[in-house]
Design a protein that fits this description.
Elements lengths: L1 H23 L5 H20 L1 H11 L4 H25 L2 H26 L12 H8 L1 H26 L5 H12 L1 H18 L9 H54 L13 H18 L8 H11 L4 H21 L19 H17 L1 H8 L12
């Protein structure tokens, strides 16, 4: 399984590394350098852990299972990088280094101990597929030291990420840190599987039965954490994409209403070039709908609003939903009156019922207005009361 999962992790880490290297050209702060180092060690870990690469590296170095100590050392190093990032994000530089120092010393001691134990654990043949299980059986001390350091630091990273997420200044940074903290259960699941390997080995039982769980857990933890680290950078692109999608959906949703009102009131419509950006076209569409709405005011029977409110309230509509239904009914009645040249003796003083306070609120309201205009039976029923009667030809 790791011949499939680990190359995927290596590719993701390589992409993240390439992206962050570009960021370094404009920002060489300690957090960015540590993040680049994190992705570098992650890339090395999963590239070397791929079985074909594992054997080639060990053979080239001339040390059996050298790839094992290399990859697990990289895991310890990348964890140190993650702690440096989180500590510098949440503290001033001096405080961050003061808090990081004991952590880094502890990890250095772990690495020294691992290398010392590895020298006695490297003579049982290459194990690219089950290195951890092999070490659990023959050299449990080596794997126990690694797992203890790994678990303790994953818990530390998870807690640091969760704490800073609560005070992070940017939304996508908060989301990324929460994402990082949420990977902790997968890391602990991997640790539990490896601990089970050590225990099972003492009873001459192989850990191959739950090895897929360990591999899937560490893969999910790695992918999720990598995404969490780069989320503050590429999250803004997601926001831009989502904004475009939402604008496009709104532009399409307003099309039927815009077409209806401007077919009779074409004056507000401005010609725009085909390559005009979507945001500009959308803004013009809502302006043209509102301008046509005001132009139709003199064709809108004043009593439509009260009738529409009664129908809407009977259907349980409130607030902006009610306002959208009333404005839609007024528009339907006004368009019918103008098309048949039946101008009311008393028109509405204003076609507006709702007063959105900003562009986002205006867009949301006009979507409701368009939907009510085209699909609401409440609107059709209220407008019908003023479109089926005799004509009143008095002009204002």
């Amino acid at each position: 399984m790791n011949s499939v999962l680990y190359p995927i992790c290596a590719a993701l880490a390589g992409l993240a590394l390439f992206y962050k290297l570009r960021v370094l050209s404009s920002d060489r702060s300690i957090t960015q350098v540590a993040l680049v180092s994190n992705f570098f060690f992650l890339f090395i870990t999963y590239t070397v852990s791929t079985p074909a690469v594992w054997a080639a590296i060990s053979h080239a170095i001339g040390i059996v299972n050298f790839s094992g100590i290399l990859t697990q050392s990289c895991v310890i190093l990348l964890t140190a990088c993650q702690q440096i990032v989180l500590l510098h994000l949440s503290h001033e530089a001096a405080v961050a280094w003061r808090k990081a120092t004991p952590r880094l010393i502890g990890l250095a001691l772990v690495l020294i101990t691992m290398v010392t134990l590895f020298t006695a654990a490297s003579s049982h043949g290459e194990n690219p597929e089950d290195f951890a299980i092999n070490r659990a059986q023959y050299y449990p001390a080596y794997l126990a030291i690694y797992l203890l350091a790994y678990a303790a630091n994953q818990v530390d990273v998870g807690i640091l990420g969760w704490r800073y997420a609560k005070i992070a200044p940017h939304p996508w940074m908060r989301r990324g840190l929460y994402f990082i903290a949420a990977t902790l259960p997968f890391a602990l699941m991997y640790t539990a599987c490896r601990t089970a390997d050590i225990i099972a080995a003492q009873f001459n039982i192989s850990g191959h039965a739950w090895e897929p769980v360990a591999q899937v857990a560490i893969t999910l933890a790695t992918i999720s954490k990598t995404l969490g680290w780069i989320l503050p950078d590429w999250g803004r692109h997601l926001s831009t994409l989502w904004q475009w999608i939402n604008d496009y959906r709104t532009f399409r949703a307003l099309a039927p209403l815009h077409r209806e009102v401007t077919s009779q009131i074409p004056e507000p419509v401005l010609h725009l070039e085909p390559n005009t950006e979507l945001r500009t076209r959308l803004y013009r569409r809502i302006v043209e709908i509102r301008d046509a709405q005001w132009a139709l005011r003199s064709w809108t029977p004043a009593a439509v609003a009260d009738a529409a409110k009664q129908h809407a309230r009977a259907a349980g509509l409130t607030e902006t939903d009610l306002a959208a239904a009333v404005e839609a009914a007024q528009l339907k009645a006004a368009l019918h009156a103008r098309a048949t040249q039946r101008q009311p003796s008393v028109c509405t003083p204003t076609p507006r019922v709702a007063e959105p306070q900003d562009l986002a609120a205006e867009l949301a309201f006009q979507r409701k207005l368009a939907r009510a205009f085209t699909t609401s039976p409440i609107v059709s029923a209220a407008a019908a009361e003023f479109t089926a009667g005799p004509a009143t030809q008095e002009q204002l």
